[in-house]
Specification:
The chain has 519 residues and is an alpha+beta fold. Helix content is 39%, strand content 19%.
Length: 519
């Protein structure tokens, strides 16, 4: 009989789903990826998806994987799942979706939500937190569904994150990983369990504890693949599904993030900087730490909501030339954008970009807007594109310094993952702006690798996470700061970028008051 020594990781992102087969040394043996439209939008700012798109894509990816030469699914020891965060699905008692999934990208707000109640409102007002709590409740998808679609809300048996929905499809039971719980839900991020029954979020979001799935620690067994799921996916019946983690948590683990001295950057649709922590430290007042892939640990995160989405924005609005050339050459426009970076010098001849095209609750603030300043008649598309990469790096460096203050630990190394990390220009700019070595992990698929590492520990292929990191991760290409560039960026960061928001913040508030955007 074949040894059961392989790991199947399923990675469900915003635009595709991947079935990835790893060995215990962190080598990617086979991969299948199924792309889909990230969402449909029947009104501006709405982003929804048919949940069956995710499940059908999962089935297709797995079935294609088994057809790959050399793939022996009888060797698979177990399965783990990682998904995008904060996308929610209402289901009935049989697990059937009652409405489209509402994605993390959704921008609708609920101004007439039930609120926290008089007592809680008074307490939040005294603490100076009422506006933040109101913003949280207006952003919560449950608030909108409850107030605008009461019949759907009335019939909602379970309110699931995407991870919980796919877990149900694989196991036929409502369970999910503790480390996947990131979203506008009544979750106690410090104690890593559902909030107690007195927490204001239950009432304010119209939820009841019985509507949430049972939570199980990462690296523990959630259940076994059912015969129905096996028939649909080709995954062997009875294989254990190991509780995984959210995609960012898996990226941190897959990048080797065990200590707060390693800054784990993710250059995805959202750009983030994370550090691992054994203590639940908040990056901002009232902003929670998130569950790490390692049970009982935390990821402290600063997020730039519209991160390398900005490259897609640039491609759509200003990259017609590259899109046409890419079609002719059979390549990707992003590869051709590397030439644009080379056409503009470090510092973009004074063009400075603040990348808050969509602001966060606490950082930089709900009134935030994006800005580009310093234009002159010498500036071209190339300067604008380079300023995007530089602006994201500046914002993440600011996040690094915040995390260092909060954890008390200097960050002395950078591991950069995500699609943007495949750009040598972005990697060099990162090293120069931070003044630190920037390293790509040996494998691009860090979120899938992180999920496989969790499974390896849960199945006993590695005795603990330290051993899994040692065996399954290693550095790839390293980019060292260029001293001349480092000095230039350091001055621009300290003398310009750090001052921009303080100067522009009041203007952003006026714009919001006058135009109502963002409201």
């Amino acid at each position: 009989m074949s040894a059961k020594d392989l790991l199947l990781a399923i990675d469900n992102g915003t635009q595709s789903i991947k079935a990835l087969l790893f060995d215990p040394e962190g080598n990617l043996l086979a991969k299948e990826q199924v792309h889909f439209e990230p969402y449909f939008s029947i009104k501006p700012g709405w982003t929804e998806q048919d949940p069956l798109v995710y499940w059908d894509s999962l089935c297709t990816a797995c079935q294609r994987l088994w057809k790959r030469e050399g793939v022996d699914k009888s060797r698979i020891a177990g399965v783990s799942l990682t998904t995008q965060r904060s996308s929610v699905i209402n289901v009935d008692d049989k697990g059937n979706p009652l409405r489209p999934a509402m994605l993390w990208l959704d921008q609708r707000k609920t101004e007439n939500h039930p609120g926290a109640g008089p007592l809680w409102n008074a307490l939040f007002a005294v603490a100076g937190a009422k506006s933040t709590v109101d913003h949280f409740l207006s952003e919560a998808q449950s608030s909108w569904i409850m107030t605008r679609q009461p019949e759907i809300w009335k019939n909602t048996h379970k309110y699931l994150l995407l991870s919980g929905y796919l877990t149900f499809k694989l196991l036929d039971k409502f369970v999910d990983s503790t480390s996947s719980q990131v979203g506008y839900i009544p979750f106690n991020y410090r104690k890593l369990k559902w909030a107690n029954s007195l927490d204001f979020r239950w009432r304010a979001q119209g939820l009841k504890p019985r509507q949430m799935p049972e939570l199980i620690e990462a690296a523990k067994v959630l259940g076994e693949i059912t015969s129905q799921a096996s028939e649909a996916t080709g995954i062997p019946k009875g294989l254990p599904l190991i509780a995984g983690a959210a995609d960012k948590a898996c990226e941190v683990l897959g990048s080797g993030g065990l200590e707060p001295s390693l800054g784990c950057l993710s250059y995805g649709t959202t750009a983030t900087i994370n550090v691992a922590s054994k203590k639940p430290v908040s990056p901002f007042w009232l902003a929670p730490p998130y569950p790490a892939a390692i049970p009982g640990a935390y990821n402290i995160e600063v997020e730039i909501f519209r991160g390398y989405w900005m490259v897609s924005w640039f491609k759509k609005e200003f990259g017609f030339e590259e899109r046409m050339e890419a079609m002719e050459k059979g390549t990707e426009p992003e590869i051709l954008f590397e030439k644009l970076v080379e056409e503009a010098p470090p510092g973009s001849m004074g063009l400075m970009l603040q990348p808050y095209w969509t602001p966060g609750i606490k950082h930089p603030g709900p009134e935030g807007k994006g800005a580009i300043i310093g234009f002159g008649d010498v500036h071209t598309r190339a300067h604008v594109y380079r300023s995007i990469l530089e602006g994201l790096a500046y914002a993440l460096r600011e996040g690094k310094e915040r995390l260092e203050k909060r954890t008390g630990t200097p960050i002395n190394r950078l591991a950069v993952s995500g699609g943007g990390s495949q750009s040598d220009s972005a990697m060099q700019i990162t090293a120069d702006v931070f003044g630190l070595p920037a390293v790509r992990p040996h494998l691009y698929e860090t979120s899938g690798l992180g999920a496989a590492m969790i499974a390896a520990v849960g199945l006993g292929l590695h005795k603990d996470f330290s051993q899994a990191v040692s065996a399954m991760t290693r550095p790839g290409a390293e980019f060292l700061p260029i001293e001349e560039n480092r000095q230039l960026y350091n001055r621009l960061y300290k003398e310009v970028f750090l001052k921009m928001y303080k100067r522009l913040g009041p203007i952003y508030k006026s714009i919001r008051d006058i135009t109502g955007y963002p409201s």
